[in-house]
Amino acid sequence: MRFKKWFSALVCGLLLLSLVAGCSPGQPLPPIKFLSGDSEVAKKYAMGLQEIVRKGLGIELTLENVDFKTRLQKMRDGDFAIVMAGWAADYNDPMTFLDMWTTNSPYNDVKWSNKQYDDLIAKAKASGDQAERMNLMAQAEKILLEELPIIPIYWPQRNYAEHPWVKGIIRTAIGPGNDWKFAYTEGRPGGDDPQHLNLNLGEEPPDLQSITTTDTVSFDVLNACLEGLVRLGPDGQYKQGSGLAESWTVSEDGTKYTFKLKKGLKWSDGTPLTAHDFEYAWKKAVDPRTASQYNYMLFYIKGAEDVANIQLPDKEKEPAKYKEAEAAIQAAMDKMGVKAVDDLTLEVELVAKNNIFISLTAFPTYFPLNQKAHEKWGDKYATEKDKMLFCGPFVIDQWEHGSKMVLKKNPNYWDAKNVKLEYIQFDMIKDINTPISMYEANQLDAIGVPGDFIPKFQKERPQEFHQMAEAVAWYLECNLNHPVLKDPKFRKALSMAIDRQAYCDNVLRNYSKPATGLTPPSIAGKDATESFHDKYIGNILPATGNPQEAQKLLKESLKQLGYALPKQK
């Protein structure tokens, strides 16, 4: 009898264990904080993705909506689990998207590291053979899409409306998205005098210091108030004489550039603008004490990366070593391939021949910086309109933080006679409906059109509504220090659960396309006739998702990590 009782107890115990095993034993799934913007559009887009993940995986993402500047800082600090982030191409090459995810990249917020990926990117950067570069970068992107430290979601399209009296705004998919130098109005109700535009920035510009700025809102303002050696013209070309350089010559091997600046260039306070302002800015951008996230944009210049890679000890704890590092920085800067020979001559030596270098000099990180003013205002530089200098078509005349900014024509600009606008007024409105109402009341001259309003504009204002392809990717960044997001299998489950096409059609509703890779199709391959994505990558990620595979991967991941499956609601 005692044996039978023991056996019965054993059977019952085994049955109970099997039942428990069937209920996915393990600790509860840790919270997954989803960081996003606080504008109405950003909130809507984040909630749409939250719902897709809830339905597809049974996982609840906890939304945290913050302003643009705070979101950028949280990303840099690693204070997130998942964050919705976007990247706009700085130049027309896949490297602008792929260089971000190398181990030591300042934009690698997720702290992903893959030696094979790093080696492929390094080889691509060192190669002067376009076909070889494309193959190396394609291999790298496929590694990224396999491990998914970031999960591409969609490639947007720009939808905008402008009144018929608005003329001459240059909109581009590469670099700063808008240029108002050539803009004017003709036929505005009530008259065109004074020439002006009323626009909506949508956000407070987070950083107007050219050597540290990283966001598109600040780029647009800086592109209006500063200028590089060249400027993109209405014909889409970077021509000699288009910017602060009058001309340039290139050595036979394509590695040495000699720029001649225009005579009589001035900063907005009337002081001369010289080649020394470019040398100072470029060296300051790669100085590790600046901690610029865009320092790598100058790594095409000989010795620039050597400067940036110098390690800085703690200034307070190791003052002697810090001084040694400062001396090493100066020595490396002295060897860097940029030198102001005189006030009008700038010599630049590159690591290797680079076909996109001239276009890079139109980018904000390459803009000049007045050393005296920069050192005078220090950390306060570019935080107020009277604590920065300007050299572009406009200056900042008014700046009410978080509310309004007014740009005024710069009388000291070299080409002021061809700038028709007297001023541009920017509002900083985050909600969806107000800019639409203001546009319809002629209080805004041009606006971005949110997806919900596209059918209305197509029907009622077809001549004013416009669309253009963007070179932008939106993706989820996954913090690899998070207990579950550290697992590639969990990240792949998350990617598989997202129906990108449904998200574009039902949430965005703005003609965006599902991102089946990272680099957008609008980025060229080895030449302008081919798309890098179409030729070298293809549709690696599913456009419509794969819920069965997602659930399978989720179960495997959580079992391995020791977490219980979430209860399906």
UniProtKB/TrEMBL annotation:
GO terms for cellular component: cell envelope. Residues 30-108, 243-559 form the Solute-binding protein family domain. Keywords: Signal, Transport. Gene3D superfamilies: Dipeptide-binding Protein, Domain 3, Periplasmic binding protein-like II. One of its GO terms (biological process) is peptide transport. The keyword Signal applies. Residues 1-23 form the signal peptide. The keyword Calcium does not apply. GO terms for molecular function: peptide transmembrane transporter activity. It is found in: Cell envelope. This is Solute-binding protein family 5 domain-containing protein.
